[in-house]
Amino acid sequence: MSDNDKPLVWIQGEVKTPPFSADARIKAGFLLRRLQKGELLELPDSRPMPSVGKKCHELRVNDKNKTWRIIYFIDDDAIVILDVFAKKTKKTPQEVIDVCKKRLTRYKQ
Q1: pLDDT at 1
Q2: What is the C-alpha to C-alpha distance for residues 109 and 92, in angstroms, rounded to an integer?
Q3: HEC assignment per residue over the chain
Q4: What local confidence, expressed as pLDDT, does residue 12 receive?
Q5: Where in the sequence is the domain holding 40, given as residue range(s)?
Q6: Is the dihedral of CA 31, 21, 44, 58 positive or negative?
Q7: pLDDT per position in the chain (109 positions), as tens?
Q8: Is 49 inside any structural domain?
Q9: Burial per residue of 1-33, b for 16 or more beta-carbon CB atoms within 10 angstroms, e otherwise
Q10: Cα separation of 71 and 58, whole Å?
Q11: pLDDT value of position 89
Q12: How many domains would you assign to the chain?
């Protein structure tokens, strides 16, 4: 990590094998590393999550039989991980959105 890279701040969740497959864990790590270096990711790897908050996004990591989501916030000096979960439906569950909003509010205080 260089001096210009943003650190990851883990509020909730983790990326480890298991439950992630080794390939999915490596993919998630690669995407998170790109974020730390200041890259703005787009579909299919990431999409904005304005329902959670401004500068919030979700990483999309396909696994063997699951699709993982990593909800994150891009702060001026860090990448804040708000949640990691296996997505089972097309729509992000409202309870995940609500919990992430609360975590973001607490983080900003």
Answers
A1: 58
A2: 25
A3: CCCCCCCEEECCCCCCCCCCCHHHHHHHHHHHHHHHCCCCCCCCCEEECCCCCCCEEEEEEECCCCEEEEEEEECCCCEEEEEEEEECCCCCCHHHHHHHHHHHHHHHC
A4: 86
A5: 8-108
A6: negative
A7: 566 799 999 998 888 878 999 999 999 999 999 999 999 999 999 999 999 999 999 999 999 888 999 999 999 999 999 999 998 888 899 999 999 999 999 999 8
A8: yes
A9: eeeeebebeebebebeeeebbeebbebbeebbe
A10: 4
A11: 82
A12: 1
Specify the amino acid at residue 33.
R
Residue 15, both tokens: 């990326």
**Can you give the CATH number for the domain in which 33 is found?**
3.30.2310.20
For residue 2, being part of any structural domain is answered with no
Is residue 1 in a domain?
no
